[in-house]
Each structure stands twice: as structure tokens, then as C-alpha cells.
Amino acid sequence: MSNRHLARTIAMQSLYQWDFLGQENVDLPRIIAFNRDEFAPDFEDGGFVQDLVDGTLRHHKEIDEIITHFAPDWPLETITIIDRNILRLGCFELKFSESVPSKVAINEAIELAKSFGGEASGRFVNGVLGAVYKDMLAKGEAKEIDKNPPKKRESEPESLPTPNA
């Protein structure tokens, strides 16, 4: 598991606990530290976890409105806590994080949903975040990183060589 995927897992579990405990008067730094110690004691990229959680919570109300708009048949309170917080995290990265390509944000959220959600969670998350992304493109809101992806390093091959048959 990559460090970034592990960070997203820790962030998602922390958001889950925040939501489960009622969102108010929750000691979030303690929850994040607990999850990091429990699931990745040697993990060193705590800053990325903190950025994910802080950003998701900073935009929480707007994110919830976006989810409600793109999942109109699913009132927010009826979406499972795990799926709701995977959607929140994915929506934060998709809409508000300029350093994460949109397709990476969507794929990472789908993988979290497949790992932690129910049988249909991956499809549900894909459907909602895919609709958000299509709406962003239709409105001309593509992220700069999607328009101008980072160039490959000189040491990276253009493509992998194929073995001789």
C-alpha cells in the first residue's frame, strides 16, 4: 500500500470516528493520532493526513451540499457513515485539492469504498464522484493539474519495454 493511500485510509477512518461521535466536541488530533498508531505506527507522512482531514472539515458543509446534489435519491443521513466519509474525502480532493489529479481522487475513493464499504459502495462512490467530475468539466472548472499534468522525469521511460516473445 502506498504512503498516500495509507494516509487516505487513516484520514477516512478519522473522519468516520468524527462523524460517528457526533461531530461536535470531538478531539480530532487524538483520533488521528490513535488511527495512525493503530494502523500505521511507522507512518511518517502525518502532514498529508492532517491536510486531508482539515481540508475536508473546512469544506464540510459545501461538500455535503455537493453530495446531496449529485446523490438526490440518497439523503445524506441515509448514506452509511463509511460511504458518506469516503465521499467527503474524495469530494474534497476532487474539488478543493489542487495537488491531486481528479482521476486519482476518484480512483482512491473507489478503492477505499471497495475495501471498507459494502458490496455496492465502490459503484456508488464512482457514480457520485464521476458525476461531480463531469459537472466540473462542463462548467470549465478543470483543475490546473488535470490540464497540465506534471512532466515525466528524464529517468522515466515513455513506456515499458515489451518482452521478446
TrEMBL record:
Signal peptide per UniProt: none
Pfam name, any one: NusB
Basic and acidic residues bias: start-end ranges: 143-156
Keywords: RNA-binding, Transcription, Transcription antitermination, Transcription regulation
Region (Disordered): 143-165
Domain NusB/RsmB/TIM44: 7-134
InterPro entries membership: NusB-like_sf, NusB_fam, NusB_RsmB_TIM44
GO biological process: DNA-templated transcription termination; transcription antitermination
Gene Ontology molecular functions: RNA binding
Keyword check for Transcription regulation: yes
GO CC term (a single one): cytosol
Similarity-based family: Belongs to the NusB family.
Task performed by this protein: Involved in transcription antitermination. Required for transcription of ribosomal RNA (rRNA) genes. Binds specifically to the boxA antiterminator sequence of the ribosomal RNA (rrn) operons.
Name assigned to this protein: Transcription antitermination protein NusB
Organism name: Candidatus Uhrbacteria bacterium RIFOXYB2_FULL_57_15
Species lineage: Bacteria, Candidatus Uhriibacteriota
Gene behind this protein: nusB
